[in-house]
Amino acid sequence: MRRVIISVLGPDRPGIIAATARILFDNACNIENVSQTILQNEFSGIFIVTTPAELGIGDLNERLRQGLAPLRQHVFVKAVSDAPPVFDTGGSEPFVITTRGPDQKGLVARITEVIARHGVNVTNLQAVFRGGEAPGDNIMIYEVDVPPETDAEELQQDLRERARELGLTISIQHRRIFETINRV
């Protein structure tokens, strides 16, 4: 068995995951991980899949492409590397950084530059852009892993300074605290 990563992108509509899963099942593949979201009107799905050794990556890509063409989806398949991870999360602490304020060009670039400079890894990023009558209500949620060698106070100070420069309010919380406060 070999592991591959598959990305599926295209206009959202019902049945995309069902069609993708059916094609994978019909080709003796097993879905190990999946992350899917809708961005505005666009479907975005990423699958980690084990495939039988005799099924070539090009063949799988073509079968997915043909099977998902009626749904107007674009497909990309590549092998998953067996190399050790570049970023070791051992001992890292999960935090959630939330910014609120007006949308502006370079917002994500300028916040993530600070995060990267401190050796912190972004594991998930979500944006809710309200625009319209409440442009100040735009929210960005960065889930990050902070390694033990990172000076958390310095990271928070640099993020707060960058948020001030951008006219944003910012919240930085350990993920357990964030989840407890925001439990529905």
Counted beta strands? 8
The biggest sheet, with number of strands, parallel, antiparallel or mixed sense and barrel status, is: 4 strands, antiparallel
What is the H-and-E element order? EHEEHEEHEEHEH
* pLDDT < 50 stretches: none
CATH level-two architecture of the largest domain: 2-Layer Sandwich
Average pLDDT over all residues: 90
Write out the CATH superfamily name of the largest domain.
ACT domain
Strand and helix map with partners:
Layout: E1 2-11, H1 16-26, E2 30-39, E3 42-51, H2 57-68, E4 74-79, E5 93-101, H3 107-117, E6 121-128, E7 138-146, H4 152-166, E8 169-174, H5 175-181
Which short descriptors sum up this protein?
single chain; 184 residues; alpha+beta; Alpha-Beta Plaits; four-stranded antiparallel β-sheet; 8 strands
